[in-house]
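Page 42, continued from yesterday. The earlier attempt failed because a stray header line got pasted into the input along with the sequence. Redoing it now with the clean sequence only.
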Amino acid sequence: MYVAAYDGMQLSRAGAIEFVGVAEGDRLVGARMELEGIRFVLNLVSESPVPHLSSIAGMDPDWTAAELKRPFRKILFDHYSFPSHSVDFDWSVA
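This time it went through. Structure tokens are written below.
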């Protein structure tokens, strides 16, 4: 799982949840997800790295500038100028 982001990216917190599968031919190889403006890419094919998002056919153009980041530790949210909530990521393998 990767976070897809770029420097200066503004999160759109529209309250929407989006999940879109990514296929190569008839094989599901991953997914892109958006939750409260945070964008994730899930790689289901461990034997190959995730290609740059701009090279994936059918990728939403709004995603193509994003770089895949991992490990991503924490996202802090502000409501106006006040801390609102945070998301912590645990990448350890059990």
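Notes: DSSP finds no helices and seven strands in the chain.
Reminder to self: strip header lines before submitting.
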